[in-house]
Design a protein that fits this description.
The complex is a heterodimer of chains A (521) and B (141). With 521 residues, chain A is of the alpha+beta class. Helices cover 35% and strands 24% of the residues of chain A. Chain A has 5 domains: 92 residues, no CATH class; 51 residues; 70 residues, Arc Repressor Mutant, subunit A; 125 residues, At1g16640 B3 domain, CATH 2.40.330; 121 residues, Arc Repressor Mutant, subunit A, CATH 1.10.10. Chain A has 17 helices and 23 strands. A 7-stranded mixed sheet of chain A has the order 11-16-17-13-14-15-12. In chain A, strands 2-3-4-5 form a 4-stranded antiparallel sheet, with no helix packed on it. In chain A, strands 1-7-6 form a 3-stranded antiparallel sheet. In chain A, α2 crosses α3 and α15 packs across α16. Chain B has 141 residues and is an alpha+beta fold. Chain B has one domain. Classes of the chains: A alpha+beta (521), B alpha+beta (141). The interface between A and B is medium-sized, with 20 and 18 residues.
């Protein structure tokens, strides 16, 4: 068997699964897929070496078409799974195209009739290649094989074991179902009470101490069984980072962490080519709606803090975007949710937060926003802390005083903007700030906008309203992005793409646009 | 009545060897025509091609096969001129199936082998009203 074929097979065969079954049985404790892979490769390499050495040690030569053999000679046929046969007859080959060669009739022990094979045939044929190399060695030590083939074998093995009823999996740990101690309902009820009392997620190891399980199995096995039982019970959810299961109660999770708020749902943004200026603006807005499900990619240059500009959908939902840069502030997690704590930078108060993988957002900041009376456009800073599961949250407070600001209302099914004096107690992005004058009216406009109008039409409708507030009729792309998001969830790239593609608008530089005369009312 | 699957680019086609006889044509003549010059010199007419030994390309096991098939599969079809861009599509499809020992091929596989047209166009051609060179869907009665 060629080396590449050999490695394609490792991790996929019944024999491999049986061997790993025996390995786990003997070990008596769970193993990670990496450990299983390493063990399997080591075993397979040694077995193959042994098999090849046995072949080499057999007195019968390996059959090659180019060689010549005598009647009565024993041969090993590598292409027929190393079966051994005896040469019974020799005759001349009959094919004028192939020149002079011969045919041997070979008798195999379990076959009634002999089979014929070429002999003295020196032309190119795979069996005429040098057999000594492939027959005697894979030319790899088990350690080298693990390094070179480990990843591919692990993928194949995980796929194979996932479909096998005998094996149980929790995270990346594997064990045998039949050897797991029973975790009966009473223990799970106790676990529920313990988590409720803690008011926070609890590590499996801590639950294990609390539950005081009978010592019928090794501790890692009992922990595995406990993890599996918790995972299979809808009351519990693993909300811990990678390689540290932490269990919490689903009924205590925030509704907005369980299900993505509808207000955050955006249509996928197409691949839109923006000018360098708009591209930079869009990138600096860190909106998860632009990710199109790609938030898991590593941040190019992870930072210790990031300042976001609050948008209306997140203000309403009590959430923040989970972009790669934000994700890099938290430990890696593979479960649907990671539970952590926000900590207010000023008061040091801690409160529960969730990083939600599906939908790419952080949940849990509704009350924090409300207590600080933050408007869309406010700066919010997230900062890494010494505890990986604590994220410091901050804003930029200022003494509350009345300022002339943009105020949005819904009037007769349309967005209306005006400049009004309003008290504000936080710093904000000038272009993004919009104070909500009439939430119910805006919701009515949003409902109509969701059902009917295209982004371009909405922009054309909103633009004159915003332009009337500026003397020159200029409106910044960020203002339009912030305003559109009052009634339709859209990422900056989608908004700026629609602005660029519409004939109604012309860029006047610096991120500002004007309405072309033909479209001006 | 069992539902009939609509043919697609994965539907397999082969040469129906009985088609030649039914249509007054000689398959061996047609096979002889695709031989390279060297093989045609060895077998000047189809009747000169008797069964010969064939060496299996992987196991080197020897079997007795018709010399025309053996020459086409193991020799002529291995040469670059067997199917060229200038070969008409219907002839190229026939040659591709001969080269494959008449093991069934889909229009996707045929497209890859003949290197022209498209899988969909080949499928359309093979499902046309005229059967060319006996090439029919594998399950057709």
């Amino acid at each position: 068997m060629a080396s590449s074929d050999f490695w394609k097979e490792v991790g996929t065969t019944n024999a491999d699964v049986e061997h790993l079954y025996g390995f786990l049985l003997e070990r008596g404790a769970p193993a990670t897929s990496r450990e299983l892979t390493a063990h399997l490769i080591e075993w397979r390499v040694r077995e193959e070496e042994k098999k090849l050495a046995e072949l080499a040690a057999r007195r019968a030569p390996l059959y090659q078409p180019k060689q010549t053999y005598q009647v009565g000679e024993h041969l090993i046929f590598t292409a027929l799974d190393n079966r051994e046969g005896v040469v019974e007859r020799v005759r001349a080959g009959d094919n004028p195209r192939l020149g002079d060669w011969q045919v041997i009739a070979v008798r195999f022990a379990d076959e009634p009739k002999p089979r014929e094979f070429a002999m003295g045939y020196a032309a190119a044929h795979p069996l005429n290649e040098d057999l000594t190399k492939s027959a005697e060695s894979l030319e790899l030590t088990p350690e080298q094989a693990i390094e070179q083939q480990g990843d591919a074998v692990r993928v194949a093995l995980v796929k194979r074991l996932s479909g096998d009823r005998e094996f149980a999996r929790v995270g990346d740990d594997w064990f045998l179902k039949g050897l797991l101690p029973e975790i009966h309902a009473g223990y799970l009820n106790l676990a529920e009470a313990a988590i409720e009392q803690a008011g926070d997620s609890v590590r499996t190891a801590d639950l294990f101490k609390i539950l005081d399980l009978p010592p019928t199995a090794k501790k890692p096995t009992a922990m595995f069984a406990l993890n599996l039982a918790l995972e299979n019970d809808e009351r519990f959810e693993d909300v811990g980072p990678v390689s540290e299961a932490r269990w919490f109660l689903t009924r205590l999770e925030l509704p907005e962490a369980r299900e993505r708020p509808a207000v955050l749902e955006a249509a996928p943004a197409g691949k839109i080519a923006l000018s360098g200026e708009l591209d930079l603006i869009a990138k600096e807005l860190y909106d998860e709606a632009d990710l199109n499900g790609d938030a898991n990619m590593p941040a190019a240059a992870p930072r210790d803090e990031i300042t976001l500009i609050l948008t209306y959908p997140h203000r309403q939902a009590g959430t923040l975007p989970l972009t790669p840069l934000v994700r890099a502030l938290l430990p890696a997690f593979a479960e649907p949710r990671l539970k952590f704590n926000f900590q207010d930078a000023v008061t040091q108060d801690k409160f529960a937060g969730y990083a939600v993988a599906q939908g790419h957002y952080l949940a849990g900041v509704s009350q924090w926003f409300a207590a600080r009376k933050l408007s869309p456009g406010a700066y919010v800073t997230l900062r890494r802390s010494a505890d990986p599961l604590t994220l410091i949250i901050d804003y930029q407070p200022q003494r509350e005083h009345s300022l002339w600001v943009r105020v949005a209302r819904g009037v007769n099914g349309h967005l209306n903007f005006s400049q009004e004096k309003r008290p504000l107690s936080h710093k904000y992005d000038e272009e993004m700030l919009i104070v909500i004058g009439d939430p119910a009216g805006i919701e009515a406009v949003a409902q109509a906008a969701r059902q009917q109008r295209s982004l371009t039409l909405l922009l054309e409708e909103i633009f004159p309203e915003l332009a009337k507030l500026s003397g020159a009729g200029h409106v910044h792309a960020k203002t339009l992005y912030s305003a559109i998001n009052l009634i339709r969830r859209a990422g900056p790239r989608a908004v700026m793409g629609a602005l660029t593609e519409s004939r109604a608008f012309t860029s006047v530089g610096g991120g500002y646009f004007v309405l072309n005369e033909a479209h001006a009312r | 009545m069992a539902p009939v699957a609509r043919p697609d680019t994965k539907t397999l086609f082969h040469i129906d060897l009985t088609w030649f006889e039914k249509n007054g044509r000689d398959l061996r003549e047609a096979m002889h025509e695709v031989l390279c010059d060297e093989c045609r010199a060895r077998y000047p007419s189809p009747s000169d091609a008797h069964p010969v030994d064939r060496i299996h390309p992987q196991t080197a096991e020897v079997t007795r096969v018709d010399a025309l098939w053996e020459s086409i599969v193991d020799h002529c079809a291995q040469k670059p001129g067997f199917i060229t861009p200038a070969t008409p599509l219907t002839a190229a499809i026939f040659r591709a199936l001969l080269a494959n020992g008449n093991q069934p091929m889909s229009s996707e596989q045929l497209h890859k082998r003949v290197g022209k047209s498209s899988a969909a166009a080949i499928l359309k051609l093979l499902l046309g009203s005229e059967i060319e060179n006996g090439v029919v869907p594998l399950d057709s009665k």
